[in-house]
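Hey L., structure's done. Input below.
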Amino acid sequence: MSRSIERSTASRRTFLQRVALSGLAAGPGSALLAACAGGGDDDEEPDTAEPTDGGATEDPAAADNPFGLDPEGELEIFIFDGGFGDAYATDIHEPMLQAKWPNLTINHNKDADITAALQSRFVAGDPPDFINNSGNGQMDFATLVSNGQLADLTPLFDAPSWDDPSVPVRDTLVPGTIEQGTFDKPYVLNYAFTVFGFWYNKTLFDSNGWTAPRTWAEMLDLCEEIKGAGIAPWTYPGGIAPRYMHWPLLSMAAALAGPEILVDIDNLVEGAWKHEAILEAANALRGLRENDYFLEGSEGLTHIQSQVQWALGKVAFVSCGTWLENEVAKSFEDPALQEEHELNPDDELAGDFEFAMATYPLLSDDAAMPYETVFARAGEPYIIPSQASHPEAAMEYMRAMLSMEGARGFTEMVTSLTAVLGSSEGVDLGAPGLTSAQEALNAAGTNVLNYKWDSWYPTMNNPGIDAHTGDLLAGRKTVEEWADGCEDEARIIRDDDSLEKYTR
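Output:
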C-alpha cells in the first residue's frame, strides 16, 4: 500500500470511529460504513480519541478541524452541470477550502447526468467524496438511503460553524432545511432555498394595468382579460413535468384548509388526497383547461420550452421556483440550448422584460392561512456517500459552503437564495424576480408550506401522481378520477413492505 493511500485510509477510519463513538453512525448505513472503514483491519486497536459532543466548542483546535481532516489529504468533488453550472464550486467554495487547507488535493468533476456518470462507481464501491445529486438524471435518494449508501450528516449540523465556533452549523440554517433532507436521519444537505409561486412579466402587466391576483376569482377574471389581449394566460411543462402544477395545487389547498393536510399526505394517511380542499384546488386548475386558458400544446412541452414561450411574451403565467431567472437566461444565451429548444439566434426576452413572482392565490377569502402564505423549501441537494474515501474532507467542504462568505458568493453568482440565515442581507440580488421572491418570503413570516412525499417516495411522484396530474390538466381525467389515481399511488407505497416509511 502506498503512503498516500495508507494515510487516506487511516484518516477516513479515524473520522468514522469518532462518528461512531459519538453515537451518530448507527442506522441503515452503519454496517456498510464499518465494512468500508475496516477492510482487513478488524483486529486493530480502536482510535483512542475522545468523542466530542459535535456542537459548539471552546477548543480552538477542535473548532478549526472538527472532522479530523487530513491537511495533506484528498477530496473528489462531483457537481451537477445544470442551471447553476459549476463555477460557484470552482470559483467560490473550493478556493475557500484551499485557502484554509493549502495542501489538500481537490479533484473537481462535473456532469449533466449524475446517474449515468456515477451509478457504476457506486456499484463498484468507489464513489466520489462529495456529490451534487441534482437534475433529471439525479440518483434516487430513497434507494440510496435504503441501501445504506449515504453518510449521516448529523456531525456536520452539530459541528461548530465556519464563521463562529460558538454556534453550531444547525443554528445557522433556515428552519426546515435539515428536515428537508431527513429520512430516518439527515442524509442530504439542501443548499439553495427555493421559493415557489407564479411568475409574470411586470413590464407587461404594468403596461396593461394588470396586477397579480390575490384570489382565484381574481385570477379567472384576469385570465379572461389576458386572453382577450391575444396572450395565453397559462402554460406548464405537461410533456415531462406536470408536477410543476403540484406546487400551486397543494399550496392553495393547504392555505384553504391548513398545513395539516400536507402532513397527512406525507404520512400516507388513507383518503388524504380526497380532502375537500385538495379537490377544490384540483378543480380550479382543471378549470384553466376547460376555459381554454392554457397555451395550445402545453401538454407536450418540456419545462424549458414552457418557460421560453412565457419569456417570449406568448404566455402570462408560469408556476416555478426561484431558479427560473437563471435558467431562462441560459436558454437565451447558450447557442446549444438555443438550438435544442428551437430558438432563433435573434430571439430574446420579450420587450423590457422584468421577472416578478407572486404567491399562489387564495381559493377563498375565508381561507385558514393568509394570502402571504408561501410554498418554499430547501433544495439543490448535496450528499456524501457512505463509501466515500474522504468523508471528513467532504464535510469540511460542506461547512465552508454553509459559511456566510460561501452562501453570499453562491447567491451573487447564480441568483439563488441559500438555506443560510441572513446570507442575502446586504447583498445586491440584482435579479428582480429573486428580489420579489425574497420579499414574498419575508412577508410570509412563519406561514411557509412544504411537503416531503415527493422526496421520500420518488416513484409515487414520478411517474405516479405526476402522470395523473398530466391527465387532469390535459382534460383526460376528471378531478374525481385524478384523486382516485393519487390515492392508488399512495396505497401502493403504503402496502409495499419493502419500502421504509417516514412520518412527520
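The chain has 22 helices and nine strands. The beta strands are 74-80, 105-111, 130-132, 189-201, 232-234, 315-321, 355-358, 374-383, 448-449.

-- N.
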